[in-house]
Amino acid sequence: MANFYLDTPELKYHLGHPLMKRIVELKERDFADKDKYDYAPQDYEDAQDNYDRVLQIVGEVCGDIIAPNAEGVDHDGPTCADGRVTYAPGTQVNLDATRSAGLMGMAMPRRFGGLNFPIVPYIMAADMVSRADAGFENLWGLQDCAETLYEFGSEDQKMRYLTRVCAGETMSMDLTEPDAGSDLQSVMLKATYSEADGCWLLNGVKRFITNGDSDIHLVLARSEEGTKDGRGLSMFIYDKRNGGVSVRRIENKMGIKGSPTCELVYKNAKAELCGDRRLGLIKYVMALMNGARLGIAAQGVGLSQAAYNEAVVYARDRKQFGRAIIEFPAVAELLSTIKAKLDASRALLYETARFVDVYKALDDISKERKLTPEERAEQKKYARLADAFTPLAKAMGSEFANQNTYDCIQVHGGSGFMKDYTCERIYRDARITSIYEGTTQLQVVAAIRYVTTGAYLAQIREYETTQAIDPSLSTLQDKLKNMADKLQMAVNQIVEAKNQELLDLMARRLVEMTAHTIMGNLLLRDATAAPDMFAKSAGVYVRYAEAEVEKHMTFIRKFMDENLADYRVK
After folding, report:
1. What does 399-432 look like in DSSP terms, one character per residue?
2. Which residues are CB-contacts of 313 (< 8 A; sequence separation ≥ 6)?
3. Bridge partners, 324 (sequence order)
4. CA 172, 177, 181, 186 torsion: positive or negative?
5. 85 DSSP assignment
6. Is there a contact between 177 and 190 (Cβ–Cβ < 8 Å)?
7. pLDDT per residue as tens digits for the range 143-157
8. Is 181's pLDDT higher than 90?
9. Is the Cβ–Cβ distance between 349 and 532 less than 8 Å?
10. Hey, which bits of 178-330 come out as E strands?
11. Cα–Cα distances in Å, from 200 out to 193, 319, 392?
12. 206 pLDDT exceeds 90?
C-alpha cells in the first residue's frame, strides 16, 4: 500500500515548524471546542497528532486510489451532454473516496461540519493530491472557495452552504469571460435584481471555469448598470439546484484533463449577493485569488515531487553502457537540481502558508472580540508577509514545476516522450500552473512593490540575523548575504533611475533575485534543523541561486547604458 504522506518525510518536518504552536493556539481559540466535539483536540500535541493522522489518510487515499486512477482519468476525461458534465469514472471514484474519508471542508469550523484545520495541513493535503493527479486537485481543492464564503458571507449563507461543502458538495469560482481574462475589471456578466423573484438574476457567459458544473458557484458579475470598471462588480452565490446555468462545452486541454474546464451560459440564473455590492473585485475576488494562488503553489510542489520520484526510479532502473544511468554525472546533476528546486519551492510554500494562517486566524478572532494591541500588530505583520509571499510562492512553485517536469522527461530520454510513462502526463499537467490564477507575469506585478519598498529585503535581513545556522553551512550563508547585497544594489540602481518603463522591464529579474535569496535562506534554516533531509539540497540550491542572481545582476548593469527601445515589440 502506497502512502504519499509517510513516504515524504519533508511534509512532517514542515508540519512541526515552531510557528505551528501559535497557529494552533489561535485556530483552536485555546481549545475551546474540546468540550463540544469529541474529535476536537485537547491541546497542541493532540492537535498535531490529529493533523498527522488525517494526513496519513490523505496519503493513503492518494497512493492507493487517486494516483492509480490518474492515467485512466487523463484518457477518459469528463463529458458534456444536455448542458451537464459527467466526470470520468475514475474521477467519481476519487470524489467518493475523499468524501467517505471526510476530506471535504477541511479548513472549515467544526460547527459547519469541517475539521477546523489550519491552512498548513490543508495545503499539505493539496500537495499530495496534486502529486497523485493535478487534475483532480482542481476539483477537490476548490473547497478553498469556502474560505471566501466563510469570510464574507452572512451567517445564514454560511449555515446553508458551508455545511453542504463539508458534506462533500463541490464548488467553483466563475470569474473569467471571453473578453475578461487577466483583466477582470472588464467582466460584463449582468446581475439584475428582480423584485418579483426576490433575488438577483444573472445573464451572460463565463469561460475557462474550472469544475464549471459544480454544486455551488461564487460568481463575479456586474451589478451596477452603466459601469465599466471594477467598482461596478459584486460577488454572487449561485446554487446549481436553482437552475439557469448550462454548460455549453468543455475545453479540450493539453493537460489536467480530468478537471472539466467549462464555458457556461447564464440565463436568468437565480443568485444571491455575497457581502456588499461593488466590492466583488476590489475585496472578495482578491481574497479568493490569494487562496487559489496558494493552492496552485501547492499544485506546483506536488507536481515537482511527482517528477522527482519518477526520475529517480527510472534513473536507478535504466542501464546504459553497463551501469544505471543515475551513476552518470550528467543525470545525477539533473536529479539533484530537481530535488533542490523541489525542496526550495516547498520551503517557500509552507513559510507562506504559516504567514497566511496567523493573519487569517487573528482576522477571524477580530470578528468575535477586540484584538489586543499586540495582536493587532501581529495581525498586521503577518497580513503584510502573506500578501508579499503569496505571489512569490505561486510564481516560483509553478515555474519550478515546469522546469522539473521538463527535466524529468530528459532523464527518461526517448521513453519520456511516450505515453507509457507517467512523466509525459505530469509534464502536460504542469504547464498550466504558471498561467491560471494569475500568470507568472502578473505575480511579478504583485510582488515588485515589495521589492522596491524594501519589504522583502527587510525579511531577508531578519533571516540573516535571527536564524541560527550550523557552522558547517557558513560558506553558503556568506553566499546568501552576498546575494542580498547584490539585490540591494540592483534595486537601488533601478529605483534611482526613476523610469517606470525600466522598472517594468527589470521587475521579473528583481523578483527572481529576491525569491532565490529568500528560498536559499529558508533551505539553510531547514538544513540546520534536519541536515540529513536538506543539507544536500541547500548546497545545490544556493549555488544555483548564486549563479541566477549574478546573471540578473550582470544583465541589469549592462542594460543601464543601453537603449530601452531594443526591448519593445516593433
Report:
1. HHHHHHHHHHHHHHGGGGGSTTSHHHHHHHHHHG
2. none
3. 319
4. negative
5. E
6. no
7. 999 999 999 999 999
8. no
9. no
10. 190-194, 199-210, 216-222, 233-239, 245-250, 261-274, 319-320, 323-324
11. 4, 65, 38
12. yes
What does the alpha-carbon distance between residue 402 and residue 307 come to, in Å, rounded to a whole number?
10
Which of 226-230, 297-301, 455-459 shows the lowest mean pLDDT across its residues? 226-230
Task: Please identify which residue in the block is written with the cell numbers 483552536.
Answer: 28
Give the pLDDT of residue 563.
65
Quote the cell numbers at residue 170: 463541490
Q: Residue count of the chain, please give it.
A: 570
How many angstroms separate the CA atoms of 290 and 299, rounded?
14
Residue 417: CB atoms within 10 Å: 13
Integer CA distances (angstroms), 218 to 47, 104, 172, 286, 449, in order: 31, 17, 6, 13, 29
Residue 238 above 90 pLDDT?
Answer: yes
Return d(Cα 191, Cα 200) in angstroms, integer.
6
Give residue-wise pLDDT tens across range 351-398: 999 999 999 999 999 999 999 999 999 999 999 999 999 999 999 999
| Cα–Cα separations (whole angstroms), residue 336 to 49, 312, 478 | 32, 10, 22
Residue 469 has what pLDDT?
95
Reduce the DSSP state of residue 527 to 3 states and report it. Answer: helix
C-alpha cell at 467: 536564524
Model pTM?
Answer: 0.97
**pLDDT bracket for residue 1 (50, 70, 90):** confident
